[in-house]
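Hi everyone, sorry if this is the wrong subforum. Our group has a chain we'd like a structural model of before ordering constructs, and none of us has done structure prediction before. Sequence below.
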Amino acid sequence: MLKIIRNFFIFIFLASCLGLGAIAYFSYSYINTPADENAQALAVEIPEGSSLQQICQILADNNIINDTVKFKLYAQFKNAATHIQAGTFLLSPAWTPKTILSELTTGSGILYKLTIREGLPWWETARILEEQGYCKASDFKEVIHDKEFLLKKNIPFKNAEGYLYPSTYFLRKPKEMTKETAYTAVNRLIDTFYEKTKDLMDNAQYESIFHNPQKLNELLTLASIIEKETKLIEERPIVAGVYTNRLKKNMILQADPTVIYGLGENYRGQLLTKHLQDADNPYNTYQHAGLPPSPICSPSLSAIKAALEPQEHDYIFFVAKGIGASHVFSTNLQDHNKAVREYRNNLKRNQ
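Answer:
Right subforum, don't worry. Here is the predicted structure as tokens:
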């Protein structure tokens, strides 16, 4: 009888060891095995106040993990449930659950949302980056004018205006704003510009434009003017056609945004007659024929596309309606003057 009892306890002991060993093996295997070794990282937002179950579901919905139950048990075992932080994280299915949990709890992977609006000149972009803690505006200015840096980024101009792609980014914030953090920020904006614009044209067109500084400058400069002239995407090819027609006819462009850009950071929101008459401003398209020397902002894809494919028409004038964001386009000065009078009347009615 004693032998039977002894054998029973030995069996129970061995079974427990095997069970614990199996649990240990599968646990170790799970926390060190990624969901998808070939996947790319992506931004995942963990909202404030999310429960552990909700966090697991968010991760599963984004394919970061492939088993919510196991990840939840692992987080509970590590006593990490209350240490997972809210925020936007750059996470990858190619990471192990162990690495993912570490990113969520240490906060080292938290990304912050940065929005660069369309149509901003470089100094406003610099101000936004400084205000949000990414780099100093003075360092940003120095970087985008660094000749050696511009050469490395294949930018054949005096600065990176036109290449500072407007978009929403998710970035890590540096502990201290230094020259290096400025290079990091500018690099991200420029690399995104190249990534996005390549999809707008076939390889032959891309090569012919991006390897020809004059063509590239003309494209981005025209696109930047279009960007500033109308917010309506559907109007941009029409505006592109207007300026293309004026250039063909050797007419001065008379684009207010170019004059404003030439006034630089000192512009205070009111364009005066003296500004339009200032021939010393190289960006004054009331005084100088053709396109201005360089882009006046970093344009969006829709503006670049419009500059690439201007609409064919006979319009050579346009003016805002004074109601909404749309414009009236005209083929002759008489109709244009009539539209200008209507614009002024609409402004008076809405005062």
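For your construct planning: The chain has three domains: 34-108, 112-199, 213-313. Residues 2-31 form the longest helix (30 residues).
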